[in-house]
Description:
The structure holds two protein chains of two kinds.
Chain A: E1 11-13, E2 19-24, H1 26-38, E3 42-50, E4 58-66, E5 69-77, E6 83-84, H2 94-105, E7 108-109, E8 157-162, E9 174-180, E10 183-190, H3 198-202, H4 210-215, H5 222-237, H6 243-271, H7 275-296, E11 305-306, E12 309-310, H8 316-342, H9 344-350, H10 358-364, H11 368-372, H12 380-383, H13 404-427, E13 446-451, E14 456-463, E15 469-475, H14 478-488, H15 497-504, H16 509-512
Parallel strand pairs in A: 2-5, 6-7
Antiparallel strand pairs in A: 1-2, 3-4, 4-5, 8-9, 9-10, 11-12, 13-14, 14-15
Helix pairs in contact in A: 5-6, 6-7, 6-13, 6-15, 7-8, 8-13
Chain B: H1 2-11, H2 22-39, E1 43-49, H3 55-63, E2 75-77, E3 86-90, H4 98-107, E4 113-117, H5 118-123, E5 145-147, H6 154-164, H7 171-179
Parallel strand pairs in B: 1-2, 1-3, 3-4, 4-5
The structure holds iron/sulfur cluster.
Amino acid sequence: MDYTPFALDLETLPGAVPVRRAVVNSDKLRSVCTAVHQAGGVLHALWGCDERDRKSGYTLRVALQDAAGLLLLELQMNAAQPCFPTLADIFPAADRMQRATHDLLGLRAQEGDTRPWLRHGSWPADRFPLRRDYAGGGPPAAPQEGYPFVRVTGDGVHEIAVGPVHAGTIEPGHFRFSVVGEKVLRLEERLGYAHKGIEKRFETQPLMQGQRLAARVSGDSAVAFSWAYCMALEGLCGVVPPPRALWLRALCLERERIANHLGDLGALGNDAGFAVGLAQFSRLKEDWLRANQQAFGARYLMDALAPGGIRCDLDEANRRALIENLPPLVAEISTLHEIYDDHAGLQDRFTATGCVPPALARKLGLIGLAGRASGQSWDLRCDHAYAPYDKLAVRMQGGLQGDVAARVAVRFEETLESLRLCQLLLENLPGGELQLSLPPPTGRLGVGWIEGWRGPVLIALEPGEDGLIRRCHPHDPSWQNWPVIEHAVIGNIVPDFPLINKSFNLSYSGHDL
Amino acid sequence: MLRTLKQITRIGIISEPVPLTATERGERDALQEKIRRIYGRALCIRHVDAGSCNGCELEIHALNNPYYNLEGQGIKFVASPRHADLLLVTGPVSRHMQDALRRTYEATPEPKWIIALGDCGCNGGLFGCSYASAGAVSDVIPVDVTVPGCPPTPGAILSGILTVLNTPRAASVQESFHQG
Lengths: 513, 180
Ligand code: SF4
C-alpha cells in the first residue's frame, strides 16, 4: 500500500520479518488505520509504554499488517494527560486491547467502553502496574469487583453464568449467556482470571534469557513465542542464527502445530459425542510427544530455543527415526479423516454450527487458523516467509464456510501440510553450528513475528541499560479471536457452546498475561 | 460405521502397565485398597487451573489418553469439586483466581487431598510473586503433595496421585488455614 499521501517517515527495523515504524499524531493514527483497513489490512496488537524516564511521556504502539509486512505506528502522549483516539470503530478488536492498556498503564482511549478488562480488583483502579514507578502496595483493593455485564431483558430470557472454574480441564474464564429456552441470544465473556503479571515480570528478566518466560506466555505455543522472542532479540543485536538452528526451530514449530491439531481433532470429535475420535487422536498425540522426548529430551519443547540458535540438536539416528514416523501418521490421519467425514452424527453437529461468514470475519478481524477457515487468507509462513520457510513453499490452507466443520477441515489439512514440511525439514536439514553468541543490542526496539499453530504471535522487545529487559509485549492472536466467539454462538443452542469454543481453542493465559 | 469398528479393532487395547517396581506395585495395590475402603468407589479428581500457562493442562489431558488407562487404576476426573476427593491445582495462583480457588477448596468435602502441580504450583515458577500472582498453591490453600516439572509428565502426575494418599496429612496446617 502507498503511504505517500500520509507523508510518513518510515523507518525499517532490522530483523527477519519486514517491520516499518513511523511516529504519527492522533489524526494521522486514525487516518492511516482507516486506510490500512480499507486496503484489506488487519490490526495485530496495541499496547503502551512508559517513557517518562526518557522525558517523553507515554507511547502507544499499534501494529498493523498490510501486504508489505508489519506497520508499527507510534503515538506520543504527554505525561499529564495520556489519552489517545479510539480505534475500535475501525478495528473492533482494538476495544479490549485499549481497555487493557488503561488497566495496566493508565492510557485511556477517548471514546468507547471504559469498563476494566484485565483488572478485576487485585490492584486499585488508580494504580497502573506497568508504569515504571509502580511499587505495588497502595490501599488493598476489593478481591473481586463487580462487573457490569450487559443485560438482555424480555419475556422468557434468563442468564446462565459459567466459570471461572469449569467442569473440564480447561483454563479459567467466565461466560455469561442470555438465553431463551436453549437458544443463545447473547454471550458476554469476562476474561483476565489468569492475569499473572507477565509483562511486568519480563522487566526483571535478563535480556538474554527472556525466551524462557516468553515460552510460558501460553504453554501450547511455547515454540512460537520463544522463537518470536529470539527473533526480536536477534534483530536488536544484528545476528542471523545459523541455518541448522533455523531449520530445527521450524521443525519444532511444525511439531508443536501438529501436536495441538491432533489434540484438538480428538477433542472436537469428543465434544460432538464421538469418543472414539478422542481415543484415536490422543493416542497419536501421545506417540508424537514420546517421539519428541526421544529426539529432543522433552515432550514439550518449552526450552528448546535460545537466543542466537537452538539448544537441542538432532543426531542422525533420531533424524532417521523421525522421518520413518511420518508416513504411518499420514496414513492414520487420512483414515480418521474419512471416518470423521463419513460420520453423519459428527457432520450434523459440525456443519453450520458456530458460523462466522467471511464478511463478519473480515469486519471483526478474525485471524490465524480460525480466520483461514472463514476466508481470511493470512499465514506468515507464506505472506512474509522468514527463513527457513522461504525454502519450503508452504501451501496455505483455508475455507469459506466459517463453521465448526471448516475449522475441523483446516486442522486436518494443516496437519498433513505440516507433516510434509517436517519431511522436507528433516531430509534437507543443513549441517553446521547450532548457536551464535549475541553481541550487546544496538537497536532500541526489536520485533518477532511467528505463525504459531493458533495464528500469528508477536513479541515487541526493548532492551534496558542493565542487561535486563526494559519492556516486552507478547501478543497472542486470541486477543483478536475471543470477541468473535461472542458472535459465533448467537442463535446456536447452549449445548453447542463447548464445541464452538473448542473449534477456536483460544488461549486464556496468552490473552490474560 | 464399519470403518470405525475396523479402526478400533485394528488398534486394539494399547494401555500400558504403569511402570512400577514390585514394591511400588505393592504400594499401589495397598493404595487402591485404601481408596476402596475410604470411598468404596473410584478416587475422584477435580482439576483447578488457578492461573497456569496451560502447559500443565496439556499433560493432564494426556493422562486421560488410552496409554495411561487412568480409570483402570480406580481414578477418574469429575466435573464438580463437590464430587471430588482430590484437587489437582495448576499454575501460580493468580490474584484473580485466589478467591475461586479458596471457594473450590471449601466446596470439596472432607477428607480431601490437594496436589500442587508443576513448578508454578509448587513455588510460583518463573512467574513468582507479584501484584498479580500470589505464587505457590500452598500460599493459598493447604497442600499435601507437590509434583514439580514444567510441565510434569503424565507419569510424574500419576505417581503423585498414587502417593498422595500415603502422605501424612498436613492436619495442623489445615487447622490453621481453617482458623485463619
Ligand atoms: S509449570 Fe510450566 S507448564 Fe506448568 S503452568 Fe508453570 S510454566 Fe506452565
